[in-house]
User: What shape does this take?
Amino acid sequence: MKMHPPGLLFFFLAACFTPTADCQSQKLKSMRCNIKTMFTMNTACTACAAAPKMVCPKGWLKTTQGLGVRNCRYTVKLGENTLSQPGCHHICKKEIEEKKCCPGFWGTECYGKFFIFLRCSLAVK
Assistant: This one.
């Protein structure tokens, strides 16, 4: 039985796990197709005098100023009677970005070539 010198085995392993130009270019070719969605909501309708103090929920941005928008009604209960009053509300917006890979790409970094990805991830660490 013929034994191979340890240097040959070391050379073979080094060649398999050394980062190549493919690894460098693959890192630049991460293919993300993130989807941004804008959500809009209104604050509760209230008396226009109180509207400037209305705040949007945490993480939302108030896009109206001052009294806000005057196109809503709120109710006030006085004894047995309920009155409907014209009021004001504010508009709040929030953008959410959903991280997605483009078709044909996958993983946390959205790489498409599994074998190059595997080789690069093993060699870089």
